[in-house]
Amino acid sequence: MLSTYTLPSITFRYRHSTVKQYQKEGRALRTETTINDAYDLGIGRRLDNLPAVRAAGAAVNERLLEREADAETARLDGPELTDLVRPTAKKERRVPALRFGDPRVMALLAAVVMHAHLPAGFSDAQLRRHVAALLSLPLGECTSARMTYGLGRLAGHGLIARVEGTNRYRPTADGLRQAAFLTRIADRVLDPGIARCGPAAPPGRHWQAFDRSLGVLLERANIAA
Fold first, then answer.
1. What is the dihedral of CA 9, 10, 13, 16, to 10 degrees?
2. Which DSSP category does 101 fall into?
3. Across-strand partners of 9?
4. Any long-range contacts for 42-48 (C-beta under 8 Å, 24+ apart)?
């Protein structure tokens, strides 16, 4: 008789031993390690070695679950980043996205950080000059209309706020942290990291070396929390 549903499972094999994962009663993940030959783990077959075999099996389960948990949390986006890189709505007004990596967006973010020290805030004209310089554009190509559009995006996503009674702006506390982090992560990690990746993906057998090199790169970036 055919089953009315399919129960997925994952099986890992090493010599005579296996690790199997499946859902227990559809509610919990069950991980079963079966060691059919203790020699597979460098442990003798005598009965008094049973505690060592049990400990080795538990360690296998723990390492596997840790790796799976790391993979589950290794997402490319989160609610904060998603809020920035997707359009949003503020008081029934559509606010365009701030797409991370877009040259104009990155120039806007960098210019906000550059003007954060001004006690009276910054003006449209001040930001415009710096954005044009960061993009290596003549000032005439970075029009006032484009800057107004950029300021609207920054304000709509809560990165800057207008100084009351003026046409000047200041970065918000969260906005300054986000702008500084995004520009620094691009300059210190992503741009040099992508350049070092080369044209081809790292082969599987060199993945650990690649991962270690990435860790060194992040450490050298020295981005403060």
1. -20
2. T
3. 22
4. none
For residue 12, the cross-strand partners are 19
Q: How confident is the model at residue 79 (pLDDT cuts 50, 70, 90)?
A: low
Q: Quote the pTM value.
A: 0.56
Boundary residue ending a domain (17, 46, 63): 63
- Gyration radius of the chain's alpha carbons: 27
∠18-22-24 over CA atoms, to 5°?
125
Same domain flag for 117 and 184? yes
Q: Which residues contact 16 (CB under 8 A, 6 or more apart)?
A: 35, 36, 37, 40
Residue 167 dihedral angles phi and psi, to the nearest 5°: -105, 30
Beta strands across the sheet bearing 9-14? 9-14, 17-24, 28-35
Total domains, the chain: 2
- Answer whether 154's CB lies under 8 Å from 138's CB: no
For residues 118-141, give the mean pLDDT. Answer: 90
Question: pLDDT digit string (tens) for 150-183?
Answer: 998 999 888 999 999 998 999 998 888 888 888 8
Which three-class secondary structure state does DSSP give residue 172? coil
End-to-end CA distance of the chain: 59
Q: How confident is the model at residue 23 (pLDDT cuts 50, 70, 90)?
A: confident
Instruction: Specify the 3-state DSSP secondary structure of 56.
Output: helix
**CATH number of the domain encompassing residue 140:** 1.10.10.10
Residue 77, pLDDT score? 47
Q: How far, in Å, CA of 218 to CA of 189, rounded?
A: 6
